[in-house]
Automatic annotation (TrEMBL):
UniProt-recorded name of the protein: RND family efflux transporter MFP subunit
PANTHER family, sorted: MULTIDRUG RESISTANCE PROTEIN MDTN, P-HYDROXYBENZOIC ACID EFFLUX PUMP SUBUNIT AAEA-RELATED
Domain Multidrug resistance protein MdtA-like barrel-sandwich hybrid: 52-188
Superkingdom of origin organism: Bacteria
Gene Ontology cellular-component terms listed: membrane
Location of region: Disordered: 106-129
Amino acid sequence: MSNANAEQWILGSVRVLVTLSMVGIAGGAAYWAWQQGKAHPWTRDGQVLADVVHVAPRVGGQVIALHVVDNQRVATGDLLFELDRLPYRQALEQAEADLALRRAEAAQARQGAEPPSGNALSAEDEGTEQAREAVKDAAVLAAEIALTTARMHLDDTRVTAPVDGYVTNLQLGEGTYAEAGVPQVALVAADSFRVEAYFKETDLPNIRIGAPAAVTLMGYPDRPLAGRVEGIAFGIERPSSASGPGALAQVEPMFEWIRLAQRIPVRIRLDAPAEDIVLRAGLTASVAVNPTAASGDAPNPVLESD
């Protein structure tokens, strides 16, 4: 073998060895990442959620005063808006007058039921008077209930916040007629923020209730939040289901060699974040669960970089 051929053979062998080494390193790294992913479930498919409380007036009326602005924080009991009180004040005065009338009629009926001095009513007349008195007493009770209702309706013209939260997407304006039972203001409950993370079903064996979790918001990539697994959903909507009772099942075609793992919602309860981290419903989050940590350990972010 000539020197040129020998050098060419050596160079070729080196190239092969380098290529095999690179393939081996890449394969080892992929295997390590796969094992880490199995041991420490991680997903980029997460979202911040919060309870939305829809505030509706108990009575209808024209909005005469709006006391909040969009995105304002409110506390429980804070006044949100007021309705025109005039119709309900008049109804209250009418109820008060009606109650006074019913009480006067009941007193008159009781006075009429008393026989003249020295005279006694027959059994039939006595029964008639007792029935008339009972009717008047029932009318008094009904008037008292109507008065209580009128007072309650007048108070209901002042609509207050039922929870601590944030006014969101405010569309209400003064002069609008607000119908009873129709939501007019939406509040994002301040103490309800949580994260819903969607993990593959193959990750669920390594996720347990109470396990520490690290949540990384897209807007704060270098400041993971601590949390814990609060719950794992027991069901998701199945696309291949019957359209109704007695209907045939709508089975979608599937390739036998491709089986995609379903994603199951896992709820993460967040610890109190730093004051400068603002949680908003709908934010995107990555979530890493550390199933091997003890219940009191801090979460260990694993593979959480975007």
